[in-house]
């Protein structure tokens, strides 16, 4: 029996799919491992990081405002609003609670991962903060990335136009980059602290995206998957 073009495309995508998650998850995981090793060993990457920080350090009101967007008092309410909206729009459908629950669990995973890593690496802060350790990786960056990123992933299927989806993704990236810039500019974190959180959150958000994509394919009729 001849195979249609759509079936060929599905088979091709299925054949390539096993490699795609490996790249999506593996590359940021390897970068995170490399950065963490350099921080623990106080390697040449750390010395470069300190030089870059000295060049970028300039505390001001804008930097502090941007860094505050990574506070749990700001990021979590944004995520809660997105979760509530998605729950109301999908309630009554098959497994409507699954995406919302997955995002909540991912947000709860952030302190469970960040706190032990801070204790393990015990990295001192920049000269702009009081003496102390436990600055690696950046908890504010991780909070912003997971809260705003999870909200974006859940809201994207609810948006009807490519322009709306691009706008949402752009706004999410702008928020996370703004928080990252503010933290480094104000001296709350070294650049590597922020970059490590990017890598860690890339793994977590990619995992959430793959999970939501698989769950959606299981609960959506094939003719509606475009």
What does this molecule look like?
With 226 residues, the protein is mainly α. The two termini are 25 Å apart. The chain has helices at residues 5-16, 19-41, 44-56, 61-68, 72-90, 97-121, 139-155, 162-186, 191-219. The protein contains nine helices and no strands.
What labels describe this entry?
226 residues; mainly alpha; disordered C terminus
What's the layout of helices and strands?
Layout lengths: L4 H12 L2 H23 L2 H13 L4 H8 L3 H19 L6 H25 L17 H17 L6 H25 L4 H29 L7
Q: Work out the helix count.
A: 9
Low-confidence stretches: 1-16, 222-226
Sheet-strand content, in percent, reads under 5%
Overall, the morphology is globular
* Number of E-type strands: 0
> Which structural category fits the helices and strands?
mainly alpha
List SSEs in N-to-C order.
HHHHHHHHH
> What gyration radius follows from the Cα positions, in whole Å?
20 Å
State the share of residues found in helices, binned by percent. over 70%
Termini separation comes to 25 Å
The biggest beta sheet is recorded as:
none
Mean pLDDT, rounded to whole units? Answer: 89
Please sum up the structure shown.
The protein has 226 residues and is mainly alpha-helical.
């Amino acid at each position: 029996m001849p195979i249609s073009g759509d079936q060929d495309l599905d088979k091709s995508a299925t054949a390539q799919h096993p490699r795609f998650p490996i790249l999506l998850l593996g590359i940021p995981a390897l970068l995170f491992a490399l950065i963490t090793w350099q921080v623990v060993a106080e390697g040449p990457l750390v010395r470069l990081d300190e030089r870059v920080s000295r060049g970028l350090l300039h505390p001001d009101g804008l930097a502090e405002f941007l860094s505050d967007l990574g506070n749990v008092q700001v990021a979590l309410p944004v995520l809660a609003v997105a979760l509530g909206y998605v729950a109301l729009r999908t309630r009554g459908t098959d497994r409507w609670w699954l995406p919302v629950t997955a995002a909540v669990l991912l947000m709860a995973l952030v302190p469970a991962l960040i706190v032990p890593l801070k204790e393990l690496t015990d990295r001192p802060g920049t000269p702009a903060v009081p003496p102390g350790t436990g600055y690696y990786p950046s908890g504010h960056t991780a909070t912003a990335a997971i809260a705003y990123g999870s909200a974006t992933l859940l809201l994207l299927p609810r948006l009807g136009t490519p322009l709306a989806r691009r706008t949402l993704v752009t706004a999410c990236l702008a928020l996370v980059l703004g928080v990252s810039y503010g933290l480094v500019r104000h001296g709350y974190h070294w650049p590597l602290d922020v970059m490590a959180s990017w890598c860690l959150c890339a793994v977590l958000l990619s995992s959430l995206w793959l999970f939501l994509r698989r769950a959606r394919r299981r609960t959506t009729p094939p003719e509606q998957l475009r």
